[in-house]
Amino acid sequence: MFIILDCFVTSLLAMTMVIGNALYFIPSLWDNANYLSSFLFYVKKGKPMKSSYLKKYLFISAIFSFVLLLTPSIGIAQKIPPPEEFFGFQAGADFHLINYEQAVDYWKKLEKLSGKIKLFEYGKSSEGKTMIFAVISSEENMAKLDHYKELSKRLSLVRGLADEEAGSLASEGKAIVWIDGGLHATEVAPAQHIIQLTYDLLTDDSQKIKKILDEVIAMLVLPNPDGMDMVAEWYKSNLGTPYETSRLPWLYQKYIGHDNNRDSFMLSVPEMQNINQVVNHEWYPHIFYNHHQTSPFPSLIFVPPDCEPTNPNLHPLLLRWQNFIGTAIALAFESEGKQGVISRFLFDTWYPGYVTQVCDFHNIISTFSETFLYSYATPYFYTVSDFPEEYKDFTISLFFTNPWEGGWWHLRDAVEYCLTSSKAVLDLAAKHREELLYAKYAMGKETMERYQKEPPYGWIIPLEQRDSPAAAQLINKLITLDLEVYQAESSFQADGVSHPKGTYILPTSQPFGRFLKTLFEIQTYPDLRRYPSLWQSIVEPIKLKVPPLRTYDVLGWTLPLQMGVKTFTMNTPLDIKLKRIKMASPPKAKISGSAHYAYVIPYKTNNSVIAINRLLKEGADVMWARESFRAEGKTFSPGAVIVPLSKFSLTKMKKLAEELFLQVLRIKRPPSVKTYKLKLPRVALYKPWRSNMDEGWTRLILENHEFPYTSVHNAEIKAGRLENRFDVIILPNQGMNSIINGHPKGTMPPKFVGGISRSGVRNLRQFVENGGTLVALGSSSNLLVEEFNLPVKNVINSLKSEDFFASGLLIKVALDQNHPIAYGMPEEAAGFFANSPTFQTLPVLKKQEQPLVVGRYPEENIILSGWMLGEKYLQNRAAVVEVPFGKGKIILLGFRVQHRGQTVGT
Question: Which CATH entry fits the domain spanning 86-446: 3.40.630.10, 3.40.30.10, 3.40.50.2300, 3.40.50.970?
């Protein structure tokens, strides 16, 4: 008993001395603390004490005891709560998902408790959520964040640095490592692991983590706030029901869903714009780690090296670093006894639109992983009988050294796999900090030097363009991506072509010149069957006589072609004075002529579509010229917009023209030309319960061009009488069976089961027969061709893969400029083709029912960029067809006219 009392008194003595020191500068409290301390010394020594002292000590002791009971000690106040304490469950626990708001609340709590973490806002999501990321490092580094960001910026941009100074900056700087989770929101483990990783970095006092905090600045990012919330809410709403693992019936990003990881050079949505701003204009990280969760079963995680083909413009030093990082991750798994790591399988680096690829072309060493996923936070037990046949005997290979043998797979298992890989990347960055920093400089410098000596030396964008605002959009896109753009300060000649002052020059000799080259050059995709030694990794590579090996994404994307912008490749060096620009503007608006009958606006730019919608909303009379005509000495093409002055004031037209860079002519008298009178159409866009990215992209494009529209679901189409509500119905790219049948019963809550059904097909038919216009994008054309018995045939439907293969490329389309669908288009355009419906029109008995071909593939030289097998099947076939049907019409757009928002030219 005395031993216990002695220990208690000793502990209380120490505590009161700490309190006394803390209260040193408050005299009355300081005295009282000293009284209590003295009293404890007396008790400790067993000495007697005066009763007056004893009473005072007991009184003060009571006060301090009461205060201590109500106030947590200093140590407890600084304790960082683990996720399970804060949320009530572990990050990655079965049947639980942390949503974005909860995650940010946790971050905010930790920011108050630790000097090693700071939160940064970086814009709004598509749904208006504040986007936040966390930065974690040692307190010493946190005090100098701006300094380390500036060092990284200087090394990234290269200019003004010599090797020696770059070496000094690399020695002084810190490795900035971006780690994100949840870009694809249904892949839930990466986002959950970010929360656990935050806690681990702040509380783990091991030497490994200490070194990471000393040498690395970690950026932890939840890049899809809207999707993270949607998925958590959907899962929670179905938990414990038969639909617990059912698919989300809408896109987990407002417009583009899974395609958010295909939007990194076009930057169509706020999330990707915000990421680009942080990565390429503010922080300039050295490693960018992008987590995903679709590892090919039965592997448990994919890590680099990636598979073939490899984009030829990637820097060889970057590729070696990527392989090094992937090997370090795999080594960490083997060291921890974790099975199922696979590499060099399924995921290639050909397409530059992934968030990782854009980083690669900014000399940021990207890595990504795909952890295994069952479904959300629901566990599942796997047996060997679930495995594909070739994996059932657990044969190992060089890139699959330790196969998984099955068992339970929990969300927490996936979180642990993400943690292992993230910590391995941070550990590598800490150990190789200086080399990483210098490598970024070295890659930029080598690129600049290389393209000073060899072509392509760059690209020229002429001032004269069919769609000048589109050209300015392209240039500003490049500037936003941190590419250097210049204007000539005098006229010049390049490769025999004369160009005026102000012409845009894009030199390849710049730190990120390989990115420019990738976006602007024509893609020549390698048919992997011809290069077995590059990818087979066997003693005697075998040339295969099989269908072309599938690619992970598209084969050709040349951006100027997609956007309809004329460019020239610089095959010889250019020695003229240039001025770097921060923004490009189209030619200024101009309203010429002084006549007082009508305005005429040429119909050649996408902005003219916006102008028509604004004019109609303002109540103006808007006529569309059905053929070419001359007025005031100028020639106008079919589609020219004629607006009587009586319904639209000059003040309003000046404002409209300035905002949209319009060239407007005022004419004296009505032109001698037939016209259509336009009205604002009542547009419906079909929105299936099978989340459809093409539908989302179409929504975004309609909004960007200011078309009012209504989204309609299955029930509204099945209800019928569509002609009473709409003039136009658009079917996005979707398979026929999917449109008709949708989700099978039992796979989704009843509201989301099924498609438009046969009754919906009949209602669509009735809509057209009664005068409506039905527009089918891509594969939805098959529904109308088959179900409406149209005099049209899709000629590639029955082809086998060994005869026809086209997973995404740019091809030539010849257009009928005299048809309203092609008004304002050039005679030939680049169309994006991905196994797209290709039409042959069939003979009909009645002339008025004859389909009209608006766009056609030529007889030869069809391919513009990329590769396909079976080009002959497209020769002279129809790409765009208008089919009269009853009182209405059906428009079949075979190729992908609005693919991922990139095809501005179509």
Answer: 3.40.630.10
Which 3-state string (H, E, C) describes 402-434?
A: CCCCCEEECHHHHHHHHHHHHHHHHHHHHHCHH
- Quick check: 75 pLDDT over 90? no
**Close Cβ partners of 213 (under 8 Å, ≥ 6 residues apart):** 116, 136, 137, 138, 141, 201
In DSSP terms, which residues pair with 118 in a beta bridge?
A: 135
Tokens, residue 160? 């003004």
Instruction: Say whether pLDDT at 30 is over 60.
Output: no
Q: What is the DSSP letter of 397?
A: B
pLDDT 10s digits, 34-54 = 433 443 333 333 444 444 444
At 589, which amino acid appears? Answer: A
Q: Do domains 86-446 and 590-677 have the same CATH topology?
A: no
Sign, Cα dihedral of 878, 879, 885, 888: negative
* Whole-angstrom distance, CA of residue 462 vs CA of residue 499: 7
Domain limits of the chain?
Answer: 2-77, 86-446, 454-530+549-580, 590-677, 683-901
Residue 31 has pLDDT above 80, yes or no: no
Q: What is the pLDDT of residues 436-493, one digit of tens each?
A: 999 999 999 999 999 999 999 999 999 999 999 999 999 999 999 999 999 999 999 9
Cα–Cα distance for residue pair 201/664, rounded to 1 Å:
61
Q: What are phi and psi of 552, to 5 degrees?
A: -80, -30
- Encoding tokens for residue 724? 């009473």
* Res 14 pLDDT > 70: no
> Letter for the amino acid at 32?
N
Name residues whose C-beta falls within 8 Å of residue 329's C-beta, 6 or more positions apart in sequence: 303, 304, 341, 367, 369, 420, 421, 424, 425
Cis link prior to 586 (omega < 30° from 0)?
no
**Tell me, what's the pLDDT at 596?**
84
**Phi, psi (rounded to 5 degrees) for 360:** -55, -45
552-611 pLDDT, tens digit each: 999 999 999 999 999 999 999 999 999 999 999 999 999 999 888 999 999 999 999 999
User: What topology is assigned to 590-677 in CATH?
Assistant: Alpha-Beta Plaits (3.30.70)
Report pTM. Answer: 0.91
Report CA torsion sign: 288, 292, 296, 297. positive
In whole numbers, what is the pLDDT of the chain averaged over residues? 93
CATH of domain 683-901: 3.40.50.880
